[in-house]
Amino acid sequence: MERESMDFDVVIVGAGPSGLSAACRLMQLAQEKEQELMVCVVEKGSEVGAHILSGAVFEPRAMNELFPDWKEKNAPLSTPVKGDDIYFLSNADSGIKLPNLAVPKTMHNDGNYIVSMGNVCRWLAEQAEQLGVEIFPGFPAQDVIYNEDGSVGGVITGDMGLDAEGNPKDSYVPGMELKAKYTIFAEGCRGHLGKELIAKFELDKGKSPQHYGIGFKEIWDIDPAKHQEGLVVHSAGWPLEKDTTGGGYLYHAENNQVFVGLIIDLNYSNPHLSPFDEFQRYKHHPKIAQYLEGGKRVSYGARALAKGGFNSLPKMTMPGAVLVGCEAGTINFAKIKGNHTAMKTGMLAAESIFDALASGCEGGKELDSYSTAFENSWVYDELYRTRNFGPVMHKLGTFLGGAYNTLDQNIFGGRLPFNFTDDTYDHDQLKLASDAMVINYPKPDNILSFDKLSSVFLSNTNHEEEQPCHLKLTDANIPLTVNLTKYNEPAQRYCPAGVYEVEETEAGKKFVINAQNCIHCKTCDIKDPSQNITWVTPEGTGGPNYPNM
Length: 549
Known about the structure:
Number of strands: 23
Catalytic activity: a ubiquinone + reduced [electron-transfer flavoprotein] = a ubiquinol + oxidized [electron-transfer flavoprotein] + H(+)
Shape: globular
Protein name: Electron transfer flavoprotein-ubiquinone oxidoreductase
Largest sheet: 8 strands, mixed
Strand content: 15-25%
Organism: Thalassotalea profundi
Helix content: 25-40%
Enzyme class: oxidoreductase
Keywords: Electron transport, FAD, Flavoprotein, Iron, Iron-sulfur, Metal-binding, Oxidoreductase, Transport, Ubiquinone
């Protein structure tokens, strides 16, 4: 196929915090050294920020380094944290507030800000464009370009105007080849190109498997009398029971809004569990409902997050390309934060690439300097000190794991001489449906709890209907012959958007994929017990359109 081609020094895949920080740092260095540099960022969302979903309490350490004058530049960090409440919820009706001494220091938020990361990314994009970066929203990177020597040489953006069978319509426009000396992959958690590269170059060889959670978030307008701007509330315990771990949050942002959510680790074993319905239950707990009652839900979203930490970090370099941010899994789950680490890895990658290009390198080489810089950075130190946080929680559970982590972080600063690992895959953890307890969730009351379809409506999700399905089945028979018979087809429940259904028809059961509902969380690609679902990019601009998540 004849494709239009464009050449750049650096192509960045993804306009999230890591990709945009890399772009800004590259151009800052180019201006300082008075060198010409052509940098572009491709983003699958309809605009920068459209697919960004994060709690978010933001640690400004990397921002301070990238833009020391961010306050003068009116960065949207306007709500400093003023209080930390952490609860252990023992059941549906009660919970206790934990004293600071019983909470790992990593959970303390002095000096941090409650932000919309979508708006932070929009601001970063403005800075990048002012520095000379070209940003192309609505252009998903669909394929990797490999040079003759096997090195990465850029990406191909997705074709537009294909029908459901993959045939060109009248509106067909082929994707473009964006060739680069170096490519930075910053797709976020479980990026489909990053997944391909990790497998091709064996970047995870000798590492623990990556572990994941699914994070939910809603924005509520609440009664001003109940609003406490700057208050951060975290919780552990209920509604997650037995071998299911995770935690909830409620952040008081500006303008009488709160961000409420629940994170559920995707190593859970009960195939009857529905993460979405656990989140709906969570909002009914008195410690959470006290703020939401009388309010109005205005936005909804969900996204997988990589939480394996230090032990699961893949090698981040390969010939011609690097992985940064959540693409590599640099979130510090002990802090429940990854935006600052994502930004810093993007900046480190930018510095290594700039030095290579400035020395006359024509690309295609492996950037060992990036690995060295990362290992000498505060990100590496931070992740190393919290390396046991997730594995201990998985092995010992919320209560005992929490006690160990408090001791390790508060007394020993993460230096206890033990190394816990979790070498099981999240998708291998499901019990047979016949061996697991059936969970009967209450119906939503449409006051605090809601159904999936009304929730997806609030995410402003839209896909061009007549296009190839972006949720690929390796074997179309497996959902019914394997997953249904063994696990009661858990895709019906782990998907937070009602994409997957098993329908009764005159001809028998039918597995249905409602791809138009997909909010790009990637949970299906992670949790499917048969690893039969592959998430790829849909046509450009498809998916959620989050206004200020």
